[in-house]
Amino acid sequence: MTSVLVTGGTGLLGRRVCRALTADGHTVRILSRGPAEPPPPGVDVSVADLSTGAGLAAAVAGVGAVVHCATDPRASRAVDVDGTERLLEAARRVGRPHVVHVSIVGVDRIPTGYYRAKLAAEAAIARSGLPATVLRATQFHEFALDLVDRVARLPLVPVPRGARIQPIDVDEVARRLADAVASGSATRLPDIGGPEVLPVADLVRERLDDAGRHRPVLELPLPGAVAAALRAGANLAPGNRSGGRTWREFLDGRSPSRLPEG
Fold first, then answer.
1. Does the predicted model carry a pTM greater than 0.90?
2. Structural domains in the chain?
């Protein structure tokens, strides 16, 4: 058992990671920018800011592992790239904690600014000199639902032709990260995806049916490198499908929810 710092510990994944780590008997501390978000049960809070470096020295003091879940697509340079560098520097100053980092399947193949930032964070970890484990996962069910709901509110629902998604149970990813802490092995783990690879159009139609909406779904051929990468399956890990809930099981497990109005 060890003391573990979880960055992003109040987020969707971070809270599940904290739960898995405490269940394994670890002492858990989360890095938080302030007291606004209540911490998960049974964990301590260390106030620090990846975007400035304030408080990082105290946050990493005495920990044997760091599970790095913090990310911000709106400020990926400050948080995912520079913030990761600051975290690693603080960790090197206090010893050699094992860094376990969650990334995204396709960061090396899908040319978006956010994915480039995630890839740069991976590179920083690789050259840090610290023992490190990196796990790339596909999109969580919750992310897929948010994406679907954003377009499903429109009178005519556009989706990219040929695009598929492999949504994964967030608890499954949290368990893999906690297992990496327990094993202590420094490695790049195989990419992991959900139990099903589904056309985006099918996810949208199922969500519309689930909400009792009847709207036409229009599959559009989108231009550009990002769309081409999605058609090629760069966001998928079909050879390493996890257990956990399917998309249908995820929808069935939620409280009945209406689609947001357009």
1. yes
2. 3-138+170-183 (3.40.50.720)
